[in-house]
Amino acid sequence: MTNLIHVFVYGTLKPGESNYQRYCQGRVIAQRPAVVQGKLYDLSLGYPGMVAGDGIVQGVILSFSDPNIFIDLDQLEDYQPHRPPEKNEYQRQQIPVFDLNHQPLGLVWAYLMDMTKVQVYSGVLIPDGCWKNRD
Fold it and tell me: What residue stretches are annotated with the Gamma-glutamylcyclotransferase AIG2-like domain (predicted)?
Protein backbone atom coordinates (compact mmCIF):
# COMPACT_ATOMS: atom_id res chain seq x y z
CA MET A 1 0.00 0.00 0.00
CA THR A 2 1.29 3.42 -0.88
CA ASN A 3 1.45 6.41 1.41
CA LEU A 4 -0.81 8.40 -0.87
CA ILE A 5 -3.78 10.26 0.57
CA HIS A 6 -6.99 9.34 -1.25
CA VAL A 7 -9.91 11.78 -1.15
CA PHE A 8 -13.33 11.17 -2.70
CA VAL A 9 -14.65 14.40 -4.23
CA TYR A 10 -18.15 14.92 -5.59
CA GLY A 11 -18.56 18.67 -6.07
CA THR A 12 -16.42 21.71 -6.76
CA LEU A 13 -13.15 19.77 -6.28
CA LYS A 14 -13.85 17.41 -9.20
CA PRO A 15 -11.68 17.92 -12.29
CA GLY A 16 -13.21 20.67 -14.40
CA GLU A 17 -15.17 22.20 -11.52
CA SER A 18 -14.59 25.59 -9.89
CA ASN A 19 -12.19 24.67 -7.04
CA TYR A 20 -10.13 21.97 -8.77
CA GLN A 21 -7.57 24.33 -10.28
CA ARG A 22 -6.99 26.31 -7.08
CA TYR A 23 -6.77 23.38 -4.65
CA CYS A 24 -5.79 20.32 -6.70
CA GLN A 25 -4.12 21.28 -9.99
CA GLY A 26 -0.50 20.12 -9.98
CA ARG A 27 -0.94 18.30 -6.66
CA VAL A 28 -2.95 15.27 -7.81
CA ILE A 29 -0.81 12.17 -8.39
CA ALA A 30 -3.68 10.03 -9.74
CA GLN A 31 -7.42 10.18 -10.17
CA ARG A 32 -10.18 7.72 -10.98
CA PRO A 33 -13.97 7.77 -11.17
CA ALA A 34 -15.71 6.10 -8.25
CA VAL A 35 -18.95 5.84 -6.30
CA VAL A 36 -19.85 5.79 -2.62
CA GLN A 37 -23.02 5.11 -0.67
CA GLY A 38 -24.80 8.28 0.30
CA LYS A 39 -27.22 10.96 -0.82
CA LEU A 40 -26.22 14.14 -2.62
CA TYR A 41 -28.00 17.47 -2.24
CA ASP A 42 -27.79 20.67 -4.27
CA LEU A 43 -27.47 23.38 -1.65
CA SER A 44 -28.16 26.26 -4.07
CA LEU A 45 -24.96 27.87 -2.77
CA GLY A 46 -22.80 26.81 -5.71
CA TYR A 47 -21.76 23.52 -4.13
CA PRO A 48 -23.35 20.25 -2.97
CA GLY A 49 -23.52 18.39 0.32
CA MET A 50 -23.30 14.63 0.76
CA VAL A 51 -24.89 12.78 3.66
CA ALA A 52 -24.81 9.14 4.67
CA GLY A 53 -27.61 7.20 3.03
CA ASP A 54 -28.66 4.30 0.87
CA GLY A 55 -28.21 5.98 -2.51
CA ILE A 56 -25.17 6.21 -4.77
CA VAL A 57 -23.03 9.33 -5.13
CA GLN A 58 -20.79 9.64 -8.17
CA GLY A 59 -17.41 11.32 -7.94
CA VAL A 60 -13.67 11.00 -8.32
CA ILE A 61 -10.92 9.67 -6.08
CA LEU A 62 -8.04 12.15 -6.06
CA SER A 63 -4.70 10.84 -4.78
CA PHE A 64 -2.17 13.20 -3.20
CA SER A 65 1.35 12.59 -1.90
CA ASP A 66 1.47 15.72 0.28
CA PRO A 67 -0.23 15.25 3.68
CA ASN A 68 -0.50 19.03 3.92
CA ILE A 69 -3.30 18.84 1.34
CA PHE A 70 -5.70 18.61 4.29
CA ILE A 71 -4.69 22.11 5.44
CA ASP A 72 -6.17 23.57 2.26
CA LEU A 73 -9.07 21.15 1.85
CA ASP A 74 -10.14 21.48 5.49
CA GLN A 75 -10.16 25.26 5.13
CA LEU A 76 -12.25 25.09 1.96
CA GLU A 77 -14.72 22.68 3.57
CA ASP A 78 -14.88 24.69 6.83
CA TYR A 79 -13.69 21.70 8.84
CA GLN A 80 -11.51 21.86 11.94
CA PRO A 81 -10.81 18.49 13.58
CA HIS A 82 -10.73 19.85 17.13
CA ARG A 83 -13.87 21.96 16.80
CA PRO A 84 -17.23 20.53 17.95
CA PRO A 85 -18.86 18.78 14.96
CA GLU A 86 -21.89 21.08 14.95
CA LYS A 87 -19.57 24.06 14.35
CA ASN A 88 -18.08 22.48 11.19
CA GLU A 89 -19.83 22.78 7.85
CA TYR A 90 -18.55 19.34 6.83
CA GLN A 91 -17.00 16.41 8.70
CA ARG A 92 -13.93 14.74 7.23
CA GLN A 93 -14.15 11.00 7.63
CA GLN A 94 -13.05 7.77 6.02
CA ILE A 95 -15.70 5.94 4.02
CA PRO A 96 -15.76 2.86 1.77
CA VAL A 97 -15.43 3.59 -1.94
CA PHE A 98 -16.23 1.49 -4.99
CA ASP A 99 -15.25 1.44 -8.65
CA LEU A 100 -17.90 2.00 -11.31
CA ASN A 101 -18.70 -1.74 -11.27
CA HIS A 102 -19.36 -1.46 -7.51
CA GLN A 103 -16.25 -3.45 -6.59
CA PRO A 104 -14.71 -2.28 -3.28
CA LEU A 105 -11.56 -0.17 -3.45
CA GLY A 106 -11.03 0.38 0.28
CA LEU A 107 -11.39 3.44 2.48
CA VAL A 108 -10.89 7.03 1.35
CA TRP A 109 -11.34 10.41 2.98
CA ALA A 110 -14.49 12.38 2.17
CA TYR A 111 -16.29 15.44 3.47
CA LEU A 112 -19.84 14.70 4.61
CA MET A 113 -22.49 17.12 5.77
CA ASP A 114 -25.01 16.54 8.54
CA MET A 115 -28.62 16.34 7.32
CA THR A 116 -29.56 19.18 9.68
CA LYS A 117 -27.21 21.51 7.79
CA VAL A 118 -28.57 20.29 4.44
CA GLN A 119 -32.05 21.27 5.65
CA VAL A 120 -30.84 24.68 6.86
CA TYR A 121 -29.44 25.28 3.35
CA SER A 122 -32.71 24.09 1.75
CA GLY A 123 -30.90 21.23 0.04
CA VAL A 124 -32.61 19.51 -2.87
CA LEU A 125 -31.90 15.83 -3.46
CA ILE A 126 -29.96 15.07 -6.65
CA PRO A 127 -31.58 11.75 -7.62
CA ASP A 128 -28.75 10.48 -9.85
CA GLY A 129 -26.08 11.39 -7.28
CA CYS A 130 -24.03 13.36 -9.81
CA TRP A 131 -23.44 17.06 -9.19
CA LYS A 132 -22.43 19.44 -11.92
CA ASN A 133 -22.01 23.16 -11.43
CA ARG A 134 -25.17 24.75 -12.68
CA ASP A 135 -23.73 28.20 -13.48
Answer: 7-132
Is the pLDDT confidence value at 43 over 90?
Answer: yes
Beta strands in the chain (DSSP E): 5-9, 28-42, 48-64, 91-98, 104-112, 124-125
C-alpha count within 13 angstroms, C-beta hemisphere, residue 84: 2
- CB contact at 8 A, 133 and 12: yes
Give SS3 for 46. coil
What domains appear along the chain, each with residue ranges and CATH number? 5-125 (3.10.490.10)
User: Is residue 80 classed as helix, strand or coil in its secondary structure?
Assistant: coil
Note whether 59 and 47 are within 8 A (CB).
no
Please state, in angstroms and rounded to a whole number, the distance separating the CA atoms of residues 135 and 133: 6
| CB count in 10 Å sphere of residue 89 | 15
